[in-house]
Amino acid sequence: MRILVVNVNTTDSMTKTIGEQAMAAAAPGTEIVALTPAFGADSVEGNYESHLAAIAVMETVRAYPEPYDAVIQAGYGEHGREGLQEILDVPVVDITEAAAATAQFLGRSYSVVTTLDRAVPLIEDRLLLAGLSARCASVRASGMAVLDLERDPDAAVEAIVDEAVRAVQQDRAEVICLGCGGMAGLTERVVERTGVPVVDGVAAAVTIAESLVRLGLKTSKVRTFAPPRPKQFRAWPMAV
Amino acid sequence: MRILVVNVNTTDSMTKTIGEQAMAAAAPGTEIVALTPAFGADSVEGNYESHLAAIAVMETVRAYPEPYDAVIQAGYGEHGREGLQEILDVPVVDITEAAAATAQFLGRSYSVVTTLDRAVPLIEDRLLLAGLSARCASVRASGMAVLDLERDPDAAVEAIVDEAVRAVQQDRAEVICLGCGGMAGLTERVVERTGVPVVDGVAAAVTIAESLVRLGLKTSKVRTFAPPRPKQFRAWPMAV
Amino acid sequence: MRILVVNVNTTDSMTKTIGEQAMAAAAPGTEIVALTPAFGADSVEGNYESHLAAIAVMETVRAYPEPYDAVIQAGYGEHGREGLQEILDVPVVDITEAAAATAQFLGRSYSVVTTLDRAVPLIEDRLLLAGLSARCASVRASGMAVLDLERDPDAAVEAIVDEAVRAVQQDRAEVICLGCGGMAGLTERVVERTGVPVVDGVAAAVTIAESLVRLGLKTSKVRTFAPPRPKQFRAWPMAV
Amino acid sequence: MRILVVNVNTTDSMTKTIGEQAMAAAAPGTEIVALTPAFGADSVEGNYESHLAAIAVMETVRAYPEPYDAVIQAGYGEHGREGLQEILDVPVVDITEAAAATAQFLGRSYSVVTTLDRAVPLIEDRLLLAGLSARCASVRASGMAVLDLERDPDAAVEAIVDEAVRAVQQDRAEVICLGCGGMAGLTERVVERTGVPVVDGVAAAVTIAESLVRLGLKTSKVRTFAPPRPKQFRAWPMAV
Amino acid sequence: MRILVVNVNTTDSMTKTIGEQAMAAAAPGTEIVALTPAFGADSVEGNYESHLAAIAVMETVRAYPEPYDAVIQAGYGEHGREGLQEILDVPVVDITEAAAATAQFLGRSYSVVTTLDRAVPLIEDRLLLAGLSARCASVRASGMAVLDLERDPDAAVEAIVDEAVRAVQQDRAEVICLGCGGMAGLTERVVERTGVPVVDGVAAAVTIAESLVRLGLKTSKVRTFAPPRPKQFRAWPMAV
Amino acid sequence: MRILVVNVNTTDSMTKTIGEQAMAAAAPGTEIVALTPAFGADSVEGNYESHLAAIAVMETVRAYPEPYDAVIQAGYGEHGREGLQEILDVPVVDITEAAAATAQFLGRSYSVVTTLDRAVPLIEDRLLLAGLSARCASVRASGMAVLDLERDPDAAVEAIVDEAVRAVQQDRAEVICLGCGGMAGLTERVVERTGVPVVDGVAAAVTIAESLVRLGLKTSKVRTFAPPRPKQFRAWPMAV
């Protein structure tokens, strides 16, 4: 089984990290192909870059030679999953939704802890549209940008762990979804300080994609995700 | 006052029609500038084209020389309004939301009647995210594609009017929002057959944009729509 | 175009203030007629006075000679809008709903800041019935009564501004609707301290009423707001 | 124990019927006082009359000499209950809410069957505000006006029974609340044809009022229903 | 009229207390029969014991000789009410739901104050399933276990009263439902400190059960609570 | 990895079928142990049997010797999952929830098709409590009992397939969850007739359980599913 894991930003080192996270979660026999979008921003922290990423991810996947069995969109709270489901037959899994759906099996409510405050509405919108917000206790931001994470990882981890603790104590979360990139030791620190299970979106998405493939399930094509109708495109060389 | 009205597809004749609808609704002294996206599909009837339109509309607006006072995104149920609000300071009005917000002042519930069945989920998602779905009685499709509208306008109008009648009688809608392009006589026919007010999204959006400008109101910049953070872009010459 | 703006209390000086607010927002060519109810309380701060105001506003409008093009009910969180829509054909706009509908175009969520705590449930009920509560972050009270506003305007303004700041910081509001009468400088102070757009209900209602009139839209008469059926009235000389 | 049961219209014969229904449900030792409003319409079938009834019921109760132990507002889907709770200390029970709250103990969902279609939104609004709509399967209208009930009672009963059957079969209601005046044999016919329990609002309200009194419970006065603040009234001789 | 009041735990002294509470609320002529389950835990503070109690209560009621007119399940937030409604024709009232339904007639919102934090989700689930959560302001735990209540009643009462005050001040509750067993003076202390009405679930359930019986209403048998279908049971001697 | 798959009824042949379904879905290296409850009904079609099954499943699991890595409760719409989560540390997966969570990755909405009408509310309640009802289009019953399935499998399959078609066409479901036991060829027939993906709960649950185990995730123990507190049990020899 081959799964494409598509980063939403153009930072190759992050694609590599995501690919490694995916591989660590993958079953024996699963091949992970980590892709960087052909165009876009070096990090996605708002709607403009996220909308650009949406189409970049679609075109990048479409340019990749078949066969593959599933696609994972590896951005937290980003636009575009519906488009991937429309242009592909194989299952598509968004890591925001994968984390939430997994968390719901582990406790009565979950919180997402992310980086910047401005990411919170994007994540909330994804969960609402995906029908996964009823048991979402909160989406919390640590106030740390992606660059902060690299510049002062200790402070960043601490800020994130603090929000996780608040989510458990004040918002009554029973599970934490980490809505930010793979920092060394982050998961362990959150588990240790909160005592609750911590779900990583990439890992969760890999197991869900594998499961769908193994069960022979594909995206429904009857209405919302029916293949695109034929169109004439102007000034967009990448179109089908 | 100058308002940009941006079509979501690349069919110039539709841009022209939309511009005329906007002008018909505009107050004296309002200048309407109708724009066709620099790239994209000739009609938008699904997520792939809609995601492409989202970024195309943003780049087209950004390439347009200031000053202008407000921007209208003239596509029914399309992605991208959040991005426009983020990159601009002036008010941004989506016609799907403008029609619904206007309809709510006219009756206890409203229905949207649109073309293809596959547009229904896109419209429902926009209304849900905009907080406008509580009084939405239904979103109904006539099954007619845009090309059908041109090929056999009489049959198309009839199919749309029939759905509007069903919305009023079966779904208890008290107002109809027309979620499809300007066909001659369509509004009149729906009013005549249903006896309820019919709201056109483009016209509604123009008056809302004018009102926001006149009241001196602009998009809030504290969180969700704060300006994009500085980024490095790869292979995307249009970025800021 | 002539718009009736009806105060809900019998204090003529407040009617005058409301009329001036309305005129300041009106387009050239719009005539504003500010009306004081023929009977009722000098201020409305609870259900008893509000129910009395509901019928007083209706009778006052009905006694006013036609023609007029729209009616605005200028009380925050008051009963009665449904009745006006029923007895009139022209559009009816409630300022509570006008402010909320306008705020939703400016940010992802809004809060209302009002005077007394007891007004909060009345406002929440209006927003719920109007289908405008999904994006309402909070309704907050400053604890100041109308008389307090006149007695110590500086303290009143300060209390209101403080609640607006809490709404933005704690409740994550991105827009503020002011649910209390026109105090000098209030809007400016809230904008200055919070950095978010502030919507005044009277001004918003005027532009919405003008827009509906210009678009030729009237209240739907198919069900909820069908004209009253003929009745025999006892001891109520004002009835139709 | 003395309970005031207040009709919402000025038809004395209906007050008498309501009083008899109440007495039939009352416990030994409960005194029922049926009151007709001092002013208002001979039947209430819309917002205008309902708003008039709201204030008429309040003034009628206030003019009635104490002591009494509870008040029942005996109109289906009418405005005004909040005002009564505000001006009184004793418990106030609305028959729409009493029927729904009672029905919820008897089955998983309930429907209301009422007379005219225009009453449906009024009833739905009351249930929504009262927090009783989650298990409401539907509110259905038979299309019969109050006068129809008297003119052709057999046809009226048949129309109502037919709607009740549809509620059970199509909407999956497990209990029926009758939202229309006491027609001879109506309850029995609905029970017979549907096989589900049928709740009469007046009877339910009497037992709830009695229960609250016996338990020593009164309306909470901390916020929403705190007593009215002192006011100056113009041209309203009945004010406190 | 004979009402069975069934404790959910096997502590006979608690059954006695519950029986006395029920008798204090009962009308003259109502016979209260307090039952202890034939098997189960000495206190129910979690799902395991609650599921055991669910079946124990059912079998205990079934083993009790008819006639009786109604059954009350006297555990706060426990499983099993649906099963009782299924196996019995007479009305079944759960005290969690009885308290909430009663509270809704007394104020705009209510909070439940209970003992252990782990009971909160159980109570929330019951209210959600019963359609009674729309006006629930909060469910709060004092952190006191049942044994704490006996060991240090003064501290326990104080902890509970403190949570009730927080519910009124922070969560805007207007009524308090006590979700914990009868401690001497508890109700009075909460009323005194909060100034809001306090509802005891057992007392509320008795009056509701009496009312349903007096009105001749029984559980609907059309779908959800239709009698069990005939089955073969293995290793369960108590089955029908 | 060893997964216990626990039937909810005492029919050994059904346990065998369920075990085979589970094995067909399991990854290489996963050992499936199918268990029949130690006591209970031969089929579960209502609340009484379901409550009995809840405690029977718990005791059966507890009596089974460790080690095992996850537990699946293989009944559609049954009580008891919360209790299993409380008494165990390993992940617990309910097949109703597993099917729904899986379906949500394949289409915008899903329907459940089950056997008897009386199972519908039980399934709806499970989905509501699990936070999985926002995208549930409908739960539909074919009217076929379990015994009918065996007696006339062709008619049963046809009735179920017909409901699935209605779910897709009338309720706009894009995925079907089969809420009834494994009939030969059922899945294929539904796929063939509806053209949408069909999810089997047992298979979905196996892959979810495997995924949780592989990711090292266990049930959160901070609040709702904290281990039971020590209790004294009366007449229940199976208690801990």
TrEMBL record, chains A, B, C, D, E, F:
Family: Belongs to the HyuE racemase family.
Enzyme Commission number(s) of this protein: 5.1.99.5
Record organism: Streptomyces indicus
Protein name, UniProt field: Hydantoin racemase
Enzyme class: isomerase
Pfam families from the UniProt entry: Asp_Glu_race (PF01177)
Record GO terms (molecular function): amino-acid racemase activity; hydantoin racemase activity
Coiled coil regions in record: none
Catalysed reactions, semicolon-separated: a D-5-monosubstituted hydantoin = a L-5-monosubstituted hydantoin; D-5-benzylhydantoin = L-5-benzylhydantoin
Superkingdom: Bacteria
Alphabetical list of Gene3D superfamilies matching this protein: 3.40.50.12500
Residue intervals passing through the bilayer: none
